[in-house]
Design brief:
single chain, alpha/beta, Glycerol-3-phosphate (1)-acyltransferase, seven-stranded mixed sheet, globular
Length: 300
């Protein structure tokens, strides 16, 4: 059965997802999602204002964030999302100006954790996040409201819209905002290991001469069970020191240096917290750089 046929089947159980993750790791398929993405409708340039100027858009943003904060409060109260205070908050507070924030991607709700960390850091300006085109164009209801109004930057398959996106990224960074990017590219449910990274986030950091602030979230079992009868995970965010691009290097070399430094930070946290060396079942094993594809811009 092909990967395409496999992904077209009914939603997988958590056990099936874990088995699929193990197989994908063995086969080195780090660039593939194990769960279905929403269908994608092409986002054209006239369909979006990335900078969201105007009073009405600010009102929508205000109420969308109120909904998001309410959702997180309820989820925390019900122990659906449990996380410890972050380690290294001073590293997020101390970086001045615009920045690229990276994080491992292991749960559909880890963006809520990242937003709370950012809010508590008291960093100036806002944190935007790059998301998938389909998350923006096709989600309805509660999550559709969040995807379209909570400082998201959807990555379109339309080249003209991409030009508009990257122009907006430059403006946002120059104004001192932060941009959250998941450079692993894919979301594997409760996957503990740092996955190989894609260069898109680091290319952006070099292009605009801003630091990368690496965040790696570790997971541990609690004594509570979720709806599937699995232990509820306790998440601990670890915030690394800002990594600045070496502008004396060429752009590719500087980007590669940022990528490898970020991966090394993720690896060091993994090995320190879990007390085991990082290794993959893939043969040959992968290092810090993910297998390149035509589109290597990391999204959520």
């Amino acid at each position: 059965m092909s990967v395409k046929e496999e992904n077209a089947k009914a939603p997988l159980s958590r056990t099936e997802i874990c088995e699929k993750i193990e197989r994908y790791e063995r086969e080195g398929l780090f660039h593939l999602d194990v769960e279905d993405d929403p269908p994608t409708k092409v986002l054209n340039p006239e369909d979006i204002d990335y900078l969201k100027r105007g009073f009405k858009k600010e009102i929508k943003r205000f109420f969308a964030y109120r909904l998001a904060h309410r959702f997180l409060r309820i989820a925390k109260r019900k122990k659906q999302i449990v996380f410890n205070p972050p380690e290294g908050m001073e590293n997020l507070r101390g970086a001045l100006g615009g920045a690229i924030i990276t994080c491992n991607h292991f749960n559909a709700f880890d963006s809520f954790i990242m937003q709370e960390i950012f809010d508590k850091s008291k960093r100036k300006k806002r944190m935007y996040r790059i998301i998938r085109e389909g998350n923006y164009t096709t989600f309805g209801g509660f999550f559709g409201i969040l995807m379209r109004n909570c400082d998201t930057l959807p990555l379109s398959s339309n080249n003209r819209t991409r030009v508009k996106l990257f122009h907006a990224i430059g403006k946002l960074l120059a104004d001192g905002n932060s941009i959250l990017i998941y450079p692993e590219k894919t979301m594997w449910y409760n996957y503990k290991k740092p996955k190989p990274l894609y260069p898109g986030a680091f290319d952006i950091a070099v292009r605009h001469n801003v630091p990368v602030i690496p965040i790696f979230i570790t997971l541990e079992d609690s004594d509570m069970l979720d709806a599937d009868g699995q232990p509820v995970k306790i998440y601990t965010p670890h915030i690394g020191k800002p990594i600045y691009p070496d502008m004396t290097l060429g752009k590719c070399e500087a980007s590669d240096q940022l990528l490898r430094s970020t991966f090394e930070y993720n690896k060091s946290v993994y090995e320190r917290v879990y007390k085991i060396p990082l290794s993959y079942t893939t043969n040959p094993s992968y290092g810090p750089v993910g297998p390149r594809a035509k589109d290597d811009t990391p999204v959520s």
